[in-house]
Write a structure and sequence with these properties.
single chain; alpha/beta; Rossmann fold; five-stranded parallel β-sheet; 10 helices; 5 strands
Length: 227
């Protein structure tokens, strides 16, 4: 009961933050020159890491919460007014935004997704088909494949989080962020990857044992991302 109360307070606090920033952005949009950066992709693909880099470089790009310069969140892939963590796509689609798609190596991502919360799976299940009796691994496989396919259609570019340091300045140019190059390079040199959770480390054979056909589709999609 105590944990549920803490979660509710956390949710309300972040919801208030999103509503406030939506209001402020509507005012700022009348005269601002910068575009809103929206980083999407599959969960556990380094969206928090990307948010941290931008924040420490002086730009308020929130993680699963709207910042005054943008947001980095897997939850914004579907075209929907439904929310789980942070604002819905419907709430931010009217802003002058640039949507980019960040991906991460599939085995690492699918392994990390073993610790995804049920509230997140409930949201995902509204947009992609999976059986609630599927194993966590099979569920994560379907999610990685179909969520990234959806994200591709919405984004103007797709890039690997492993290449983030080289892509960062391109993203800044796309949304007109005037960044100090040396300062940003120092941030990227010292920032550690976020979300280092304890989980099992899956192999391609583990995925094949779950669904051989889907495993081949994942490999093919990963290859198109240059993995």
């Amino acid at each position: 009961m105590k944990m549920k109360r803490i979660f509710s307070l956390y949710f309300l606090k972040n919801r208030f933050h999103d509503i406030l920033n939506i209001f402020l952005l509507k005012i700022f949009s009348l005269f601002r020159k910068r575009k809103l950066l929206v980083i999407i992709g599959c969960g556990r693909s380094g969206t928090k890491y990307a948010s941290n880099i931008f924040k420490k470089s002086g730009f308020d790009v929130g993680h699963e919460g709207l910042g005054l310069n943008g947001i980095s969140s897997w939850c914004l892939v579907p075209y929907t007014d439904l929310r789980v963590w942070g604002p819905s796509w419907k709430e931010i689609k009217s802003f002058d935004n640039v949507v980019v798609h960040q991906v991460r190596e599939p085995l690492k991502t699918i392994s990390s997704l073993q610790t995804f919360e049920e509230i997140s799976w409930d949201f995902i299940g509204k947009f992609i088909n999976f059986n609630r009796r599927d194993s966590r691994t099979l569920r994560a496989m379907k999610y990685w494949y179909f969520w990234n396919k959806l994200a591709e259609k919405k984004a103007v570019i797709t890039y690997k989080v492993e290449d983030f340091n080289s892509v960062f300045f391109k993203l800044c140019n796309m949304v007109r962020f005037n960044v100090d190059k040396k300062s940003a390079e120092n941030v990227m040199a010292t920032e550690k990857k976020a979300n280092r959770r304890k989980h099992v480390y899956l192999t391609w054979m583990d995925l094949k044992n779950e669904d051989a056909a889907l495993t081949e589709k994942i490999k093919k999609l990963a290859k198109s991302y240059r993995y």
